[in-house]
Amino acid sequence: MNFALGIVIGFVLGALIVIIINFILQKQKRREQENLIQNMEKSFEALSKRALSENTNDFLDLAEQRLSKQTQDGKNELETKKLLIDQTLTNMKSELENVNTLVKNLEKDREKKFGELTSTLDKTDTLMEKLQKTTSQLSAALYNTKIRGQWGERMAEDILNLVGLKENVNYLKQKTSGSGRPDYTFLLPKNLKVNMDVKFPLNSYLYYINSETESDRNKHKTQFLKDVRSRIVEVTKSRDYINPEENTVDYVIIFIPNEQVYNFINENDGKLLDDALTNKVILCSPITLYAVLAIIRQALDNFRLETSSKEILLLLKEFDKRWDKFAESLIKMGKKIDETKKEYEELAGKCQNQLGTCLKKIYDLREQGGMIDQDQEYDLDEE
Length: 383
Hints:
Strand order of the largest sheet: 1-2-3-4-5
Number of helices: 7
Oligomer: single chain
Largest sheet: 5 strands, mixed
Number of strands: 5
Shape: elongated
Strand content: 5-15%
Radius of gyration: 67 Å
Structural class: mainly alpha
Order of helices and strands: HHEEEHHEHHEH
């Protein structure tokens, strides 16, 4: 019993001793750890200060290098930009000088053109005065029937020359003026003719364009269209214009020597032209007359070409006939030449053989030193 109790007490005392020893060891270990930590902290602090000092110097050197490089780059870039700006300013200065020169030239040219324009306007005013005076004289002249007829003939002559028709070859002109006779007669193929008259009523039209009131204008317009219809009827009734006995065609041409008058008739009485064609009358302005005369000229050329073609065909036929005879004669002559050649070749060969034989005998005798007997006859035909 006491032994068991002693064992328990000993076990408890041993445990307490172990606990106390462990406590003391742990406290000592903790103290050592704290000292170690403090030493490590001091060492780390020293290392940190040392590393910071060394890194700071390196950082400052690196920063100084970077700053120096960036400063140099910035300086170079600024220098480049300065050169670019200077070049741009130089170009701008040159362009501004060019613009200034151009403005000065334009100013000089403007003054010159203005002077020329002023001079041209003065000349235009003078020409307008002359034109107005000439127009007045022309208007007064056109009221004269005789002068108006001469003006129409002059217009027709210009168109005839332009087309290429010749007087007394392609057309005949009436030498004396008078009503009821055509002014021009155009000669067509196969002895046909077409007549043209240049006498045209213009008095009412001139009154129309010079009228100041609308009523007068309407009155003169109506009278003018009536005069045109009367002229168409007058031409169709006269046998001097359309006469089959004189080989004239069924149509007659009336020349209106002004495009404006021709257009005026079309605009104010479109049926008038159709009625004129129905009555075998062709109203022609300068432009349409040119077209009609060009057709007549083409018809004459075609007819002349057709006539020439027929003559050429007859000549070709005669040439073919004579060529056949000539070819026969050439064939006969060729045959005779062949016969003559054959006879010549036979004669030449025979003579050559005979003469050659004779010469050979002569040479033989001469080589033998003999003499030729003049009375001896030799047969030269033996070969």
